[in-house]
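Bench notes, afternoon.
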Amino acid sequence: MTEWVDQQLALLRTQWPDLTYLDDGHWVRVDDWVLPAGWAPTELNLAFQIKPTAGEPPYAFYVSSTDVAFNGQTPQSWTPAASVPFDGTWSVFSWAPETWIPTVNPHAGPNMLAFARSFSARFAEGA
């Protein structure tokens, strides 16, 4: 594991101490993510990758359902099939940070904790 990945993983564990981490590919899974009203399912697991270097911005997050909807509508920037190294069937949301200029201090500027927290903003947008 690189120092960058180790630092980001430590930050993520401040919010999700029970997250699952796979060293191969630097995959993270957060279980039991509750979605805002209007979404179906109402709770699911999320997965994403920590890129091995600070300069490479993260992209996309994955959900443990291939049947995702907001008030009966198919979400935009969502693909109903994706391959992740966790059990079950998964789909993917195209999602990226607006800016990604990491700093030497992993607590300042863009980091994976802020990226993961931004998933709530995506769900708040609705379909």
